[in-house]
Amino acid sequence: MTNQKNYYITTPIYYLSGDPHIGAMYTSLSCDVLARFKRLDGYNVKFLTGTDEHGLKVAQVAEKKGMTPIEHCDENSQLFRDLTPLCKFSNDDFIRTTEERHIKGAQAFWTKLMESGYIYKGSYSGWYAVRDEAYYDESELKDGPNGSKLAPTGAPVEWMEEESYFFKLSEWGDKLIAYYTANPHACMPQARLNEVLGFIKGGLNDVSISRTNFDWGVPVPGDDKHVMYVWIDALSNYLTALGYPDESGDMATFWPADVHMVGKDILRFHAVYWPAFLMAAGLEPPKRVFAHGWWVSEGEKMSKSLGNVIDPKTVIEKYGLDQVRYFLMREMTFGNDGNFSHDGMIKRMNTELANDFGNLAQRSLSMIFKNCDAAIPEPGEFSVADEKMLNMAGEALLQTVRSEFDQQAFHKVLDAIWDVIRAANAYVDEQAPWALKKTDPARMGTVLYVLAEVVRNTAMLTAPFMPDSSGKMLDQLKVGEGERDLGFIGKSGLLKAGTPIDQPQGVFPRFVEQE
Ligand code: ME8
Fold this sequence. Notes:
Bound molecules: ligand ME8
Largest sheet: 6 strands, parallel
CATH topology of the domain at 342-493: Isoleucyl-tRNA Synthetase, Domain 1
Number of helices: 20
Shape: elongated
Radius of gyration: 26 Å
Distance between the termini: 57 Å
CATH class of the domain at 342-493: Mainly Alpha
Strand order of the largest sheet: 3-2-1-13-14-9
Structural class: alpha/beta
């Protein structure tokens, strides 16, 4: 395996404060799609997800439920683990910050930072919001009811003073700027990198990295009056899941991470604190932090009080898993915000999936089944139009798809594939194989062969997005399990004439509104 290319991709680890909603599904889905694509492209992939289980908020939620914190975590973490079979995620590991492997690794990471001289003990006072697990500056606060103060997020704040360990973030500004100047793609999209650089240039303060006002956390090595602040604990999951502090094994194979996928709200932790922590511990920063946007629901911010929070299970039951996976990856320009709406969902299901893709596959395979003795036809000489279509759906498409995937431009990957699907639908109309049946059956066979090839290639390239539906199309074409990686795209994987096929079944039903 010496020549194998490795690829490490991570989701944020999710807080256990509620049921997993569409936001968690979205971040994990984008990683899953990328992980599946990279596997098809011959990479040795490690795809990690998990749950972030410490902190005052978790302890308080558990207490309210009459549970110990770990009982609450066991129960709630399972809901996130259940997303894997529900959404067909292909994660290779699931880490919980309450696991022994994590606690030991996080403590070793702390010790390393301490030994490097980047941690010191001081005291901290300020306005603290339990709900956000964050301190706020006096100037950021707004007035709340009855003379109280609120954080900019609306969370209640209280004045707190505590002994605390600090990380010397103030020493990392120039080094971070140098890092991003040399590696401008280490934080994407570009607008987010600009935000991060602006923040760094505004001057970095040392950050408090321990707490003494609660004990539901990883104890600070050698001073167990303190627990680690949730963010240093949480971020280190990306290392501890690789077996850190053991720097051989998975650490040697997979570090630095290729992509940390995060929502825009947690970019600063990942693109400022985390690279500084890592460099201070003598480790390389991640190759890329990609910040995606947020979903709103029918045009409104999702909130429990509005009752418009989208539950992955409900929408999957209603529209189908692959349909939801497709919609989430297609609707939103990856990096921007997007709107989850019933109408938008139906429109894409019925036009792009049922009409464009489903129809192309169904009519091509049905014509083969009916007119070619239910077997892949023997093609004659390819015309210019045939060659153009074959190349467009094969080698040329692969090249575009690969480069868009490398920018995490999922919507552009799908756009490029749909350009080919639409071109193939136009090609069917132009070539009119139904008319050739009488006039030139050999030519009809060639046209249908080209179409079967378009279906094969587009099904392979959509498989990371819609593993079940694309798999069904490939099954119908009798493409073997071992012939579904990207090495078989285009000329290198041409269908064998004479291969018998079964009666084709439609893969993308239209959505019909129930009364
Ligand atoms: O932040 N649309 O966890 P988390 C899109 N534990 N994405 C959304 C979203 C929405 N409406 N709502 C939330 C944490 N998300 C920390 C991470 S990592 C070391 C620690 C995304 O459960 C959000 O942007 O609050 C984030 O990427 C993810 O869900 C997890 O959020």
